[in-house]
Specification:
2 domains; five-stranded antiparallel beta sheet; 2 helices; Flg_bb/hook_C_dom; cell projection; bacterial flagellum; Flagellar basal-body rod protein FlgG; FlgG_G_neg
Length: about 260
C-alpha cells in the first residue's frame, strides 16, 4: 500500500525537523549562534488521470486530474542570520558586531573562516586570538607594557602605553560580509566557511556602508527564541504522531484485505 511509504517519508522528515530544533535549543547560550529552520518539498506525483487530457471524441478536456503524491523530503536547513541580543561582559577583548558582518579568523591550514563570536583573548605573544587560539585577522598585537586597550565603533584598536600620553594605534579590525549569508558552510566552533553559494566576501572597516559597528566589552547572544522553538517542537511532534497513525491505519487496512482473500 502506497500510504505506508508516504507516511514513512513524513515520519523521517519530522524526525529531521526535531533534530534541527533540538540543535537550536542546545545552542541557546552559544555566542553568535544563528538558528536553523527546516524546509520541505513534496515528492514526485503519479498521474493516474492527466489534467487537460481529452475526455471525449468531441474535444472536451478534463478540468482536473488524479495525481497521487509520493510524500515529502527535506531540501534545506537555512540559517536565520538575524541579530542576536547584545549584552555587556565587562571583558576588554570581548567584541560584538551590531549589524552586518563577520569577524575574519585564520585557520591553522591557512584558510579564512568567519564568525560572529567575538569572545577574543590574547595569546603568549600578545596577539588577538579566538578561544581556540586562531588569529583574528588582519592581525593585532598588544604590547606587554600596555595599560589599557580600547576598540572603537569603527574597529580601530588603540592602547595606552606606560610613559606615553597619547594612545598608540595597534591596528584595525575588519569585517567581511556576503551576498548570501545563508550560503556559508557551518564548520563548527562558531565558524563559517566561504562557499560558491555564499559568494566572495566583501571586506571593509566596521561602520562603512553596509557594515555593522563594533562594541567593545559586549558579546552577541544566540538568536534562538525559546518560545518559537518549543512551539515548533510541539508541531513537529504532532505531525510525526499523525504520520505514525497513518501507518497504523494502512496496516489495519492491509490486514482486512488479507483476511478477505483467505
Amino acid at each position: 500500500m502506497r500510504a505506508l511509504n508516504i507516511a514513512s517519508t513524513g515520519m523521517a522528515a519530522q524526525e529531521a525537523n526535531v533534530e534541527i530544533i533540538s540543535n537550536n535549543i542546545a545552542n541557546m547560550r552559544t555566542t553568535g549562534f544563528k538558528r536553523q529552520r527546516a524546509e520541505f518539498q513534496d515528492l514526485l506525483y503519479q498521474s493516474m488521470r492527466q489534467v487537460g487530457a481529452s475526455s471525449s471524441d468531441t474535444g472536451t478536456v478534463l478540468p482536473t486530474g488524479v495525481d497521487v503524491g509520493s510524500g515529502v523530503k527535506l531540501v534545506a536547513t537555512p540559517r536565520v542570520m538575524s541579530q542576536g541580543t547584545v549584552a555587556s561582559t565587562e571583558k576588554t577583548y570581548d567584541v560584538a558586531i551590531k549589524g552586518e558582518g563577520f569577524f575574519q579568523v585564520q585557520l591553522p591550514d591557512g584558510r579564512t573562516a568567519y564568525t560572529r563570536d567575538g569572545s577574543f583573548e590574547l595569546d603568549a605573544n600578545g596577539q588577538l586570538v579566538t578561544a581556540d587560539g586562531y588569529t583574528v585577522l588582519p592581525g593585532i598585537t598588544v604590547p606587554t607594557n600596555a595599560l589599557s586597550v580600547s576598540i572603537s565603533a569603527t574597529g580601530g584598536v588603540e592602547a595606552t602605553i606606560q610613559g606615553q600620553t597619547a594612545p598608540q594605534a595597534l591596528g584595525q579590525i575588519e569585517l567581511a560580509r556576503f551576498i548570501n549569508k545563508s550560503g556559508l558552510e557551518a564548520k563548527g566552533d562558531n565558524l563559517f566557511l566561504e562557499t560558491p553559494a555564499s559568494g566572495t566576501p566583501l571586506v571593509d572597516n566596521p561602520g562603512a556602508e553596509g557594515f555593522g559597528t563594533t562594541l567593545q566589552s559586549y558579546l552577541e547572544a544566540s538568536n534562538v527564541n525559546a518560545v518559537t522553538e518549543i512551539s515548533d517542537l510541539i508541531a513537529a511532534q504532532r505531525a510525526y504522531e499523525m504520520n505514525s497513525k497513518v501507518v497504523a491505519s494502512a496496516d489495519q487496512m492491509l490486514q482486512s484485505t488479507s483476511s478477505m482473500l483467505r
